[in-house]
Fold each of these.
Amino acid sequence: MEEKKEPVKPTKKIKLNCAKCGKKLEQKEALIHKNIDGKQEIICHDCFKEATGVDYKTFMYRREAAKQTLFATIFCIAVTIYAFVAEGWEYGVAGIFITILIFLFSAKVK
Ligand SMILES: [Zn+2]
């Protein structure tokens, strides 16, 4: 028996359209955005900006900054606890002070 073998087709690029303006999007350009109803829709950068009031880069920057602040704060708290236990309460207090400073500073940067 002869088996028919079809040549392997290159995987089709998924074509996406913006749910708001209908613009064709490359996969890397497509943004998943939750609308007011909580439904996910695929939109373009322009519509994202329109919907959220910030452009996507700013949004990502803010999100990244918030994440970094969180990590820095957690790290400082951990160091503070360690200092408190290992070195004494004076270091613990200093650690809390530094943690608050870092937190305030990164909140201001945003
Ligand atoms: Zn759009």
Amino acid sequence: MALTGTIVRPSVEAWAALPRRARVRREGTFAWLIGVLTTAGAFIADRGWESLDDPAWAGAYRVIDMFGLASILLAVVFSVFGCLLGRHALVAAPLVLSAAAMPHTLDGYASAAVWWLGAAVSALWAVIAAARSWHQLRAVWRLAQASLTGRTTAVGPNAVRSGNRAFRRGLLRLLLFLAAACGGWALAFGMLPAELGRTYEELGEESSSSFFAAAGTAASIMAVAEAVRQGWRGFAMGRVGRSLVWEIPTGPGVVSWWPYARNDAGQLPMDAAEAPGCNCLAEFHRSFPDAEDEVVGDQGIPASDYCPLHGIDRINELTAGEFTALAEEPWLWDAGSCLPEPADPDASRLLLYGFAGHTFAGIPVRKHPGSVDADFPDVHPAHEVDPEAFGPGWDKP
Ligand SMILES: [Zn+2]
């Protein structure tokens, strides 16, 4: 499963200047607000507070009534819970409002124009958001082209697997939504024949078929939203992500917060523990008689307080200059402390595999001899952060 990745190394300034999607929450919230306003507008246009007139009350239940009632139910549910959908609301809002506009137009309701207006505005908003996404993807692609190092590296199987995991999960969600949609529609059309021709009075003011039709429509819309998201992600990954390994600065940028970090403080690498005179390994085996060397080999062992090479006395003997020169050695530090980091964002680089902008922020990987790989399979992708939230405590003298 290993593949070859091209290494790109953007400059600190270019990385910090990459367009962000800091307004992503606002994008979804605005789409939801369009839905709320349209639903309220349609209620006013149809004078929904008045009781049903006689023909509607005593009239027979028709197929169009199922779609109409389902769409109103859906619009109300979207108005209440749509703010929880995040980015999905961008795709969902125009679909929910169009689903309401169609039966209301066919049945000659006054609200039809309101529904269509809301659908058009929310569709326009979705197009604007898509254009912004496209703009960022192009910027990421241009930055990659401008930052090519000419070096390549093998990408290990853990990184590739973790990258595919996001797609697997998305496809699973898509299948679940499709199954729910089929179930909802099957139940709706299964109930429909028994309700057709009866009046609202006889149905007791509620109809099961319209309820299941609303559930079926909701699941169908979520399936479309998920398909759009995964399609866009697949396109972006194919275009810039899959074959690139980014060496990103530790300063502010699109991805500047590390989703997990391995804190090696207090640890001694295994090869250093093999130096003559070091008794860290002996001390470790005395404390953990059952530990196998192969198991700890990758992470190292805790430095012993009494080791002549790595113990407390040795550290106390160091001059300030010697200590500074060794400052990046993890064994100098207490196991409970954070390792020091250079204040210069260019000094140490973090590695990201598959970064493709906000649609997929990449898998954090580490350098191994001749390759890069994630620490374990199914590592979570990195997160894109709001630049205002970024304030490193260590970035001071
Ligand atoms: Zn030692």
